[in-house]
Amino acid sequence: MFKDLIILIPAYNEQKNLLKVIKKFKKFSEIVVVNDHSNDKTYSIAKNNSDYVINNKKRYGYDKTLRIGINFIINNLQKKYILTVDADDQHQNKFVKNFLLAIRKHDIVIGARNIFNREVEKKISEDSFYKFGVLDPLSGMKCYKIESIKNYFKNLKKNNDYLGMFFFKWISDLKIANININVNKRNKLSSMGNGKVLEKKFYNIFKKLTS
C-alpha cells in the first residue's frame, strides 16, 4: 500500500467490470469511486468494496464525474497523489509503480495507450504531441500531484466539458510526463458513447483548449 496515493475511479453502469477493477488496484491504495447515477448495480458494488463512494444525483458525464472525484480528494483527504483509472477494466495495475516513480519529478503523468478506441483519439494524440509533447491526452489513466494542481481546480469553469483534458489550461506552468502503458481491449461499448458526433465533440474541445 502507498499511503500518499489515492486511486479514483469514475463509473457509469459498470457492474460487470467494477469489482474486478477495484480488487486489482486496491492492493496499492485506498479507492474512491464516483458513481455517475448508474441504473445498474454499480453503486452497491462501489459501496461494498471501495473506501469512499460519491453518488451523483443525476448523470453528469465522464468529465464532471472525474472532476467531482478530484475535488473531493483535494478537499477531504490527506494525500499527495491521485491516480485515475477507468472502470471498464482497460487499465493494468502493473503500471502503478511506473506512475509513482515518474510523478515525483513531475506534476502530471499521462499513460500513453498502445491501443486507441477511436480514430479521433489517435488524431488528437498526434496533434497534442506535435504541439505540446503530450501523448494521449484522452487517456483515462493519469497521475496528478495534488499540491501542483489544487489551486488550478478552484478556477475551472464548472459547466465546461474538458473530457479530462483540463490540464491544457495550465500546460505552461506544469511539468507533464508521458509513460507508455498497455491496455486491455474493452469488453463493451464506451459509456461515453460512440459515433461521428462524439468524435467531433472530442476534437472541438481539444482545439478550444489548445488554441
Helix-strand layout with pairing:
Elements (H helix, E strand, L loop, with lengths): L4 E7 L6 H9 L3 E6 L6 H8 L2 E4 L6 H15 L4 E4 L11 H8 L4 E6 L5 H14 L9 E4 H8 L22 E6 L14 H15 L1
Parallel strand pairs: 1-2, 1-4, 2-3, 5-7
Antiparallel strand pairs: 4-6, 5-6
Helix pairs in contact: 1-2, 5-7
Short précis:
36% of the residues lie in helices and 18% in strands.
Describe the protein in words.
- This protein has 211 residues and is of the alpha/beta class.
- It has one domain: Alpha-Beta Complex (Spore Coat Polysaccharide Biosynthesis Protein SpsA, Chain A), CATH 3.90.550.
- Helices cover 36% and strands 18% of the residues.
- The protein has a seven-stranded mixed beta sheet with strand order 3-2-1-4-6-5-7, with helices on both faces.
- Helix 5 packs parallel to helix 7.
- The longest helix is centred in the first third of the chain and has 15 residues, at 62-76.
- The protein is globular, with a radius of gyration of 16 Å.
- The termini are far apart.
- The relative contact order is 0.17.
What is the average per-residue confidence, as pLDDT, rounded to a whole number? 94
The biggest sheet, with number of strands, parallel, antiparallel or mixed sense and barrel status, is:
7 strands, mixed
Q: Measured on Cα atoms, how large is the radius of gyration? A: 16 Å
Distance between the termini: 41 Å
Element-by-element helix/strand order: EHEHEHEHEHEHEH
Per the CATH scheme, the topology name is: Spore Coat Polysaccharide Biosynthesis Protein SpsA, Chain A
User: Can you tell me the overall shape?
Assistant: globular
Give the DSSP E fraction (strand runs of 2 or more residues): 15-25%
CATH class: Alpha Beta
